[in-house]
């Protein structure tokens, strides 16, 4: 579903934060990507979601090379990836109600009416009451806002979900609820998942395998310039 091949990316060409990193997520597979703060996980997540153009390397979605990044990304590819960010307040337009926020991708793709019922269905799935849907981001808690952001990411039925520290700001019960929503969606749709985070225990429970970010960094493994995480010795299998 997702192939990142020798990706070099960052914010300064002379000192990229991600260097020649390769990672693949198979159809329906859940891969966890672990790494310390600042190592470039979010940058890589945004590259995977076609929101950040890498300096070098290839991104393939469902076998097809990315046709562009940011506003140049073809709609079909852009909408095949659902992205949940770490900080919902930075990812939510403060002028929108929660209902408008969830429905935004439908309006952006001209499918507002068609997907209206799905907005309500997803709101229920993530545990938002009709009353909460009428509120603006500043009138709800971080956990409630993140629930809306998860519903928004699922609205267009993406084949790949990228969750960038989705639960970092949440308590245990909200974390469990949102992981369950994502898992139910994946079970029903067959979607793949790239979950980025710090929490090894959570990622090992949640994902089919977990990859350590530095292990896929060629600077640490000069003999394996594009080590495959699926065969990496630091790849851990799912815990029961
Ligand atoms: N817009 C930006 N402009 C310049 N530098 C940036 C920008 N965004 C991130 N960086 C830098 O790039 C590096 C990697 O950041 P990134 O957010 O990808 O790391 P991360 O592994 O996701 O960190 P965390 O776990 O703390 O979220 C950091 O040194 C960060 O300061």
Structure report:
- The longest helix has 18 residues, at 172-189.
- The strands form two sheets. This protein has a six-stranded mixed beta sheet, with helices on both faces. A four-stranded antiparallel beta sheet has the order 2-1-4-5.
- The chain has a domain at 1-80 and 197-240: Rossmann fold (3-Layer(aba) Sandwich).
- It is globular, with a radius of gyration of 17 Å.
- By secondary structure, it is α/β, with parallel strands linked by helices.
- It has helices spanning 41-48, 75-78, 98-108, 116-125, 130-133, 142-154, 172-189, 200-206; strands at residues 2-9, 18-25, 30-34, 56-61, 64-65, 81-84, 160-164, 192-197, 209-212, 236-237.
- The protein is built from eight helices and ten strands.
- The model is unreliable at 219-233 (pLDDT under 50).
- Residues 223-240 have a biased composition (Low complexity).
- Belongs to the ABC transporter superfamily.
- Residues 2-240 form the ABC transporter domain.
Outline type: globular
Class of the domain at 1-80 and 197-240, according to the CATH hierarchy? Alpha Beta
pLDDT < 50 stretches: 219-233
The largest β sheet comes out as: 6 strands, mixed
Bound molecules: adenosine-5'-triphosphate
Helical content class: 25-40%
Per CATH, which architecture of the domain at 1-80 and 197-240? 3-Layer(aba) Sandwich
Number of helical regions? 8
GO molecular function: ATP binding; ATP hydrolysis activity
Keywords: ATP-binding, Nucleotide-binding, Transport
Protein name: ATP-binding cassette domain-containing protein
Family: Belongs to the ABC transporter superfamily.
């Amino acid at each position: 579903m997702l192939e990142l091949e020798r990706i070099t990316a960052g914010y300064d060409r002379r000192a990229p934060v991600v260097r020649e990193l390769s990672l693949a997520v198979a159809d329906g597979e859940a891969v966890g990507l672990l790494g310390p703060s600042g190592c470039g996980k979010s940058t890589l997540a945004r590259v995977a979601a076609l929101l950040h153009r890498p300096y070098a390397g290839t991104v393939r979605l469902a076998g097809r090379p990315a046709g562009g990044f940011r506003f140049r990304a073809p709609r079909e590819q852009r909408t095949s990836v659902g992205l949940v960010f770490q900080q919902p307040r930075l990812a939510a337009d403060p002028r929108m109600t929660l209902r408008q926020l969830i429905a935004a991708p439908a309006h952006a793709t001209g499918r507002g009416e068609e997907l209206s019922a799905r907005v309500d269905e997803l709101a229920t799935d993530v545990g938002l009451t009709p009353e909460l849907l009428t509120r603006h981001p500043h009138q709800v808690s971080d956990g409630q806002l993140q629930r809306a952001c998860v519903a928004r990411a699922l609205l267009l039925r993406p084949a790949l979900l990228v969750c960038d520290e989705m639960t970092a700001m949440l308590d245990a019960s909200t974390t469990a609820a949102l992981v369950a929503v994502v898992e139910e969606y994946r079970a029903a749709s067959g979607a793949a998942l790239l979950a980025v985070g710090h929490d090894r225990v959570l990622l090992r429970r949640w994902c089919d395998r977990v990859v350590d970010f530095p292990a896929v960094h060629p600077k640490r493994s000069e003999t394996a310039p594009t080590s495959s995480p699926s065969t990496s010795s630091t790849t851990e299998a799912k815990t029961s």
